[in-house]
Amino acid sequence: MNDIKVAVLGSEAVGKSALIVRFLTKRFIGEYASASECIYRKRLSIDGRQQNLELYDPCSQPSEGKSTLSEQIHWADGFVVVYDISDRSSFLTAKAILHLIRELNFGATKRDADAVVFLVGNKQDLCHVREVSREEGQQLAGETHCQFYELSAAEHCQEVALMFSKMVRNASQHSKAKERRRRPSGSKSMAKLINNVFGKRRKSV
Ligand SMILES: Nc1nc2c(ncn2[C@@H]2O[C@H](COP(=O)(O)OP(=O)(O)OP(=O)(O)O)[C@@H](O)[C@H]2O)c(=O)[nH]1
Question: Which positions carry the signal peptide feature in this UniProt record (predicted)?
Fold first, then answer.
């Protein structure tokens, strides 16, 4: 069975937990007491196949032993980068995160990356106090080659579920592709192994 790892990233209070909880429980819970990062696990059936989903929800408060953003990026198969449409600074943070994902993880494989990085403008119900237009979100998604959604964890149950389901499906395909790239053919990897062993021995003499 495949394990699919998805990191939900973004600045403080943009609604990362709200989106995850909406997807997992179909409910919107106003306040979350989150003093530490956490991984939610769920078993899902996607296209008739059982998948173990791990959803990483970082806590924005600094805490001891907390993983760094680059560790989180290396861990994940897919990313949901969230900003709050009523908070411009959260949009700038999302932009910085998207660029870091490109640099650290997916720079070389753009085609895969398009499918497994989503930019989500959350709190669409607050559009009367909007600070980031939909067009700006779309433009950033275009520039950084990711898919764009505007959602409200507070009001959209189905749309949030569809977004996560699509991410899980895409990340599942991407993790399989990553696995294939990691595993060279048998003869090649044996040759590499022999080379490494003898290479090391020669060096130590
Ligand atoms: N109006 C509105 N409020 C939302 C929405 N999603 C989340 N909130 C509120 O935004 C606040 C922050 O939500 P969280 O889900 O805790 O945000 P977070 O990004 O996980 O925050 P940290 O854990 O601090 O990183 C809470 O008061 C939520 O009720 C939304 O779609 N609309």
Answer: none
Q: What is the mean pLDDT of the chain?
A: 81
What's the CA gap between 50 and 137, in Å, rounded? 33
Above 0.90 for ipTM, yes or no? yes
Structure confidence at residue 8 (pLDDT): 96
Answer whether 125 contacts ligand 1 (Cβ < 6 A). yes
Q: What are the b/e assignments for 150-189, b being 16+ CB within 10 Å? A: bbbbbebeebbeebbeebbbbbbbbbebeeeeeeeeeeee
Any ligand 1 atom below 6 A from CB of 12: yes
35 lines ligand 1 (CB under 6 A): no
pLDDT digits (tens, 9 = 90+) for 11-50: 999 999 999 999 999 999 877 666 667 899 999 887 788 8
